[in-house]
Design brief:
alpha+beta; Pseudouridine synthase; 10-stranded mixed sheet; 4-stranded antiparallel sheet; 9 helices; 16 strands; globular
Length: 347
Amino acid sequence: MSDMLSSLSYLYGKPTATAKLKAKPEHFQVNECLGFDFAGHGEHFMVRIRKTGENTTFVANELAKACGVASKDVSWAGLKDRHAVTEQWLSVRLPKNEQPDLSGFLSKHPTIEVLQTSWHSKKLRPGDLVGNDFVVALTEVSDVEDVEKRLQKISESGVPNYFGNQRFGRDGNNLKEARRWGKENVRTRNANKRSMYLSAARSWIFNTILSERIEKSYFNQLIIGDIAQKDSTLFNVTEDNIAQYNQQLFNADVAITAALPGDNALPTQSQALELEQKHLDSEPDLMALIRGNRMRHDRRPIMLRPNQLTWQIDKDTITLSFSLEAGCFATAIVRELINEIEVERSY
């Protein structure tokens, strides 16, 4: 599988160590965190599952069959890795409020467990996800000392908030299709494909903007015209306030953001506008797709700070534990630690 991020800048320089990631499913564990409690009643049957070596859509489709409903009646808050052990909630719309018998479903799929069930008045949506807890084991690490030094830097200063390879599809196929759709003005009623390709398009442009900021040493430094964020509020950086906000940036009270482009003009100004605009202009096919679907501009912090990052070392295995907010990628952390050895998987 090709690495779509190979051309992008590293914050701490390209790693010297090699290691395996996800050599076994249990080496990559994800535990989903929702932002609310269930009502305990309603027409949506909530199922918390633990799956091993399976993707979310496959499990959702099989659960739909077991419950006697269409696949569209099963929803989730976030897609989870296939090559992993992951826990997440799925919701099934059952208007008659009849508890389904899942014994057949479980016996057919030994890689899937049902951990908990409940009822709720609304189906799950992507915005319901607050974040994920991770336990990640790096195995056969060639230079444990270097990885540990990098972990210390990450715990102090974070990593680039890149969108991971999975956003762009196997060998970048989502991004390739996004460019083709933009060039050929493809119209479709397939909402899933449209959403997938739009996400790939915007994410790629964000990644290239972020990469240049690292290259030009603007990762930890505001520039004139930036859009910064403080306590979820966005504001413009000007000549009058840049010194003040750079100090708050140093204290981690302020975050630099970069563009998730839309069909409206960039809100950045001056030096920041010049930096961002050229990345939009360099991807005319992706921007044609974005503008053709009338996506609205959004902002995303360029720095990712993993919460509660800890690690344990056992010979040539390093096990990381941390939490990330929704929309952030654990692989953005791993990328700054190791050069991944490709693993031949049987699962």
